[in-house]
Amino acid sequence: MNFSSPFWRVLLLIVFLLWSGTPCHAAETFASRSYFYVGGHYENATNGEVMVDQMYVEKLVPIHPTQKYPLFFITGAAQTATNWLNTPDGRQGWASYFLDQGYTLYLTDQPQRGRSPWLPGDGTLSNYNVSFVQNYFTTIQVAKLWPQASLHTQWPGTGQPYDPTFDTFYASQLQQQSNLTLTTTNNIHAGISLLKLIGSAILITHSHGGPYGWGIADAVPSLVKGIIAIEPEGPPFMGMIVASGKARPYGVTTLPITYDPPVTDPVVDLAQETVKSMRENLSDCIQQQEPARKLVNLIDIPVLVVTSEASYHAVYDYCTVEYLRQAGVEVEWLNLPAAGIHGNAHFSFMELNNMEIVSLIEDWTWKHI
């Protein structure tokens, strides 16, 4: 038997990959791919003139584009555009799903992260250690840092180091800019630049990227046809579970956003009141005192907020939804367990039932955009 023949070489390679536990990657949907940068500017650094704060954009065009508006994806903290491609265990991701529906996609790496360069010395970088990723994303049912965490069942694999899926996911976690003012400014500026270049789009944001979506839509409302906010950073005015203390002084954003009547000093002008939770295992909410000021540049943009059953966002996302509604925003809440989808954590778009979730989101876009 000639084991040196091409047939045997290929067969032995397949056997090795299966035995080694390497994730098998599902075929991605065919698309035309290109990339470009937006939002950068030149400044003088210690080693001379350089470009800073630019944002990497990966454009994917389906073989048969049929949708009027493209999708502009904004990732969460420590993530890149790879979030939306194949999942860590090798299944198709949401990018393939939306390409199959005929959408053109713009996948972005936040400024100063991933393929968007960072100038050394500009702000401070931080990263997530293994314990953080396990406790808040992959093995939350073990850590049980909030009541709903015990309901987590959908992460592929063990969620622990040396499991191939976890290792693939953790390898993708990158350094991130710790200066919120700097990173918010850069992301909103780059997002505005992208929309002015490509025209109107639907925003899909995740987590830390949520406030950037509100800020971009506030700046260029005519170019934002809808916002799909996957567990947007919250709740209003305060940190909870992952962080604590005062946060987001403008309610859902760190930087100023347009209210009517206008807000000059958020501490004075955005009078707050605490609304007690009516259900067990949900947080109290901070809302505006009535009459509430309106987020006038967002009121004509349809918004969908998506929340997983087991995520830490399950504790307080309803507060973000109620705050937006009080401020006049047309927002629908897709609370996944109420829709019959159970067991998800914060990275639902990577989990075992990711396609069930995205099909509900796409149904919403058909009805509202």
TrEMBL record:
Keyword Membrane: no
Keyword flag Signal: yes
SUPFAM superfamilies the UniProt entry points to: alpha/beta-Hydrolases
Gene3D superfamilies the UniProt entry points to: alpha/beta hydrolase
Domain of life: Eukaryota
InterPro entries, per database record: AB_hydrolase_fold, Carboxylesterase_BioH
Alphabetic keyword roster: Hydrolase, Signal
GO MF annotation: an example: hydrolase activity
Range of residues in the leader sequence: 1-26
Protein name: Alpha/beta-hydrolase
Lineage, uppermost ranks: Eukaryota, Fungi, Dikarya, Ascomycota, Pezizomycotina
